[in-house]
Amino acid sequence: MKILEWWAEKGRIRVRFPYDAVLVAEVKEVTGRRWHREEKAWSIPLESAGEAGRILLPLGFQAAPEVEKLLTGEIEGIAGLTEAAETIREHSGEDHASGDSTDWSVSRLNEEVRQAILQGMPKTLWLQGEVMGADRSLGRGSNASHLYFRLVEKEQGADRPLAEVSAVMWNFRRDASFRKLEENGTPLEDGLKIRVKVRLDLYVARGQYQVTVEEIDPEFTLGELARRREEILAEVRRLGIERKNLDREMPTVPLRVGVVTSPGSDAWKDFHDELVRSGFAFEISLCGARVQGEGAESDLLKALAYFASREAEFDVVVVIRGGGSRTDLMAFDTIDLAKSVALHPVKVVVGIGHHADRSVLDELAHSEKTPTAVGQYLVSRVQESWDSVVGTAESIIDRASALIEMETERQIHSRKRAALLGRRALAVAVDKKEAQRLRCQRQLGRAIQQEGEALLMRTRRIHSATSVQTQLERARQDSRIQRLISAAGNRLKDGQRVRSESRRRLVSLTSRSLMREQEQLAQRIRRNRSADPQQILGRGFAWIKNEQGTTVRNSDEVEKGDRLHIRLSEGSVDARVE
After folding, report:
1. Are residues 155 and 186 in the same domain?
2. What phi, psi does 507 have (nearest 5°)?
3. Tally of structural domains, the chain
4. pLDDT band at 348, cuts 50/70/90?
5. Are 53 and 78 within one domain?
6. Which residue of 115, 216, 250, 467 shows the fewest CB atoms closer than 10 Å?
């Protein structure tokens, strides 16, 4: 309703209308107009009544009866307006036909009720309730800043309020008690239980009574938050489930990640980007949920239940949100959410983005300060596993290379030792044959000498016989000696030939044995070298392993998107299957 009415308390004409930026601009054109902050109304001086009528009546404003008489000239000045208003009030209780000019207007009815409330209630009182529908508005275009909300009363555990009342806090940013609450990280937001000093009033434009907040008790609110958190933790301890999820072992390679957060939020983007930048093949599944305000608890419980029903598909469940006020943590401080996290079948990691305070969930699950820190934690876990696998593989390769090298050296040593033993055996055999030859030669010489001496003695004895006989005998002896010498020479030659043949056969046999041993040794060395991974890589081959460190032998063993590690003769590269 848009109306011009007499405001006796101020001695001015009050201008009331639903907020409209165009109408506000028109009212500001009236000379001497004034905005009354507490009454939330405009007024104009009596001398500007005519100007106001020319500007505002064409815009749909109505003039109250007393103001209409002023504008038509039936009355003049404050005295006339006051007398006209009293006359209207005196006749307001009489019965009149429908449409009579003395009927009460709705605005007058609301104003009378407002005055009755102001006179019949205490000027101020302390009120406790829970904040709902908080709406910070910067004075609807003015320089002031006001806070509109509802104070509600709820039964324990109930969602629907038993009672509620509208509340407003004028210039809340300048209020010392409000600033103290915000400095403690607890702004007035939905779900916050507060104790406030209020003044009761009625908003005439809507016929709705409301309370105007004059002071907030910060200690009550902070104590309520701490008490609520401690009550939840005490109940969790009583149930014996405080460390259920905390003591659950973190998977060695947590690549399958379930995420509970608000889709499109900075928390989701920071966490997702951290995992992607790592280069590891994380499988990320997002279950969207509100993380503050009305409906947040229900969303969080549904998301956690979703991942619990698929526990075999995930290594870890992450609950994250961006930074905010202390009151933003209230969505995480409920007994149902606490039990859901503590009893969750999958390891839970929380990062609620709040450096100064901890929620109930921070006490029941592995906690990091921010979503980015949660991402870094998971990446570090996977990196440790990767480094361990790479280190093990390198140790195996180094050990295999060392064994191959040791075997090669052993074979070379065996070959050298065999050759040395062969040469020594040959030398011993040759020396032995040479010694035999010398012994035979000495024995033969002695035998020849003894035989010659015996012949000589017999010759001398026979010499004394007849010369003919002697000559004949000598001839026979000479012939016999020649035959003996010839036979001895042949025997010596045969012995030398046998020794030479034996020596040649021994050398040949030893050489063939050494050659066979060397050939077998060379073959074993070639086989060992051909089995050396580094030799195989050097011929242009590559060693390909998947993310689990298993060697890939067939294209059917990989899929699109899989990450592979390829080792070459010189260095290695990482690749992704396209």
Report:
1. yes
2. -65, -45
3. 5
4. very high
5. yes
6. 467
Distance CA(149)–CA(216), nearest Å, equals 14
125 vs 213: CA distance, rounded Å: 10
472 sits in which H/E element = helix 467-531
Per the structure, the complete domain to which residue 554 belongs is given by 538-576
Q: Let me know if residue 430 belongs to a domain.
A: yes
150-172 per-position pLDDT tens digit: 888 887 666 678 898 888 887 77
**CA gap 184, 41 in Å, rounded:** 35
What is the dihedral angle through the alpha carbons of 78, 83, 87, 90, rounded to the nearest 10 degrees?
A: 100
Residue type, 158: A
Would you state the pLDDT for residue 478?
A: 73
pLDDT tens track for 379-406: 999 999 999 888 888 888 888 888 888 8
Whether 429 and 483 map to the same domain: the answer is yes
Which residues, 6 or more positions from 129, have their beta carbon under 8 angstroms from its beta carbon? Answer: 151, 152, 153, 164, 165, 193, 194, 196
CATH number, domain of 312, equals 3.40.50
The domain that contains 122 carries what CATH number?
A: 2.40.50.140
Q: Would you call 214 helix, strand, or coil by DSSP? A: strand
Interatomic CA distance for residues 229 and 222, integer angstroms: 11
239 in any annotated domain:
yes
238 residue type, one letter: R
Q: Are residues 84 and 161 in the same domain?
A: no
End-to-end CA distance of the chain: 69
User: What would the pLDDT profile of 50-108 be if each residue is shown by its tens digit?
Assistant: 888 878 887 878 888 878 777 766 666 554 444 544 554 444 444 444 445 568 888 88
Distance CA 549, CA 502 (A): 63
Please give the helix or strand (H or E) that residue 494 lies within, else none.
helix 467-531
Question: Do residues 84 and 176 make contact, with C-beta atoms less than 8 angstroms apart?
Answer: no
pLDDT > 70 in the chain, percent: 83
Question: Does residue 109 lie within any of the structural domains?
Answer: no
Structural tokens at position 114: 């407002």
Whether residues 442 and 511 fall in one domain = yes
Question: Is residue 324 domain-shared with residue 357, that is, in the same domain?
Answer: yes
* φ, ψ of residue 241 in degrees (nearest 5): -120, 15
pLDDT band at 272 (very low <50, low <70, confident <90, very high): very high
**526 and 393 within one domain:** yes
Residue 388's φ and ψ, nearest 5 degrees, are -65, -45
144: nearest Cα among 171, 168, 172: 171
Question: Does residue 186 sit in the same domain as residue 262?
Answer: no
User: Which residue is associated with the tokens 């165009």?
Assistant: 22
Q: What three-state secondary structure class fits 544?
A: strand
Q: What is the pLDDT of residue 75?
A: 64
Neighbouring residues of 137: CB distance < 8 A, sequence distance ≥ 6 = 145, 146, 147, 148
Is residue 451 pLDDT above 90, yes or no?
Answer: no
Give the CA radius of gyration of the chain: 58
